[in-house]
Amino acid sequence: MKQKIKFEFYNEKLINYRKQAGLSQESLANDIEVSRQSIYSWESGKSIPDVENIIKLCKRLEITPDKLTNCFNLENNKKKKLKINVVIILLNIILLFFIIYIINSVYKAIVLNNIRNNLVNLENINNYYYKESMFKSKEMQQYDYKNLEVFYKDGVLKMILTSENDNSGFWIDYNNKEGYSFYNNIYEKINVDESLLPKQNGLRLISTSLVDNEHIINLIYSFNPFLTINTRKDRYILKHTIKVSNYKGKVEEHINKKDGTIINKIEYGNNGIDNYSLYEVKINSVNENQIKKPSFIIN
Length: 299
Known about the structure:
single chain, alpha+beta, 434 Repressor (Amino-terminal Domain), outer membrane lipoprotein receptor (LolB), chain A, 2 domains, 11-stranded antiparallel beta sheet, rod-shaped
């Protein structure tokens, strides 16, 4: 049922405007096709005309509708109120999404800093072993190895990059600031201070590159809308976008909740999975002959 709008009708003004027009009640009634009794009833305040007759009165008396009633103002106010309510609803929805965004960003900051704190605890470890087994992508041509291994013990680090036909890497003694790069058993001395492998770089490989040592950097990055973090029983799942040269895709990293080490990494391109890497991280466990400095390098 259509709800009737309650409004005021200014009966005394109708009398004044009718007289100013030089019209009797009967002549006005004839002009707008109503009975004289209706005009009398409206002017005496016993009843009020409907909207259609108000428009006829105003047209005949050559006045605007607001001179006789507030009916049309009420209708306009009703529309304005409806518009205001719609705007308020939209603002509340935007505010709700903003609050959810802030809460989610704070949660991501907490997770990133938890991973960072775990890595800080690992920085003083004396030995570890790290291995990455990677399924090569046809598009990601900058990767030319299938396996990467890192051995670290007592200040000596050895990193081995193994592809189908090649074997290369670094051997560095940080205690004596002595290092070598090697390619298929051909060694070349390097300056450790200018090496691309600072002391803890091998250790940094065992977690996500998204985590920074500075809490404020992690806080800022947590507001990145392209970074999402999901929590499982034993791991955090970090998803973010990457862009390397002309390649653009998404990366999913699984991080161990207990110690912050990486479990696996999946890279997605336009056609599905481009790369899939499995990781093996062993703290306080070393191999490769305990990476003592090879005597043939000294000699």
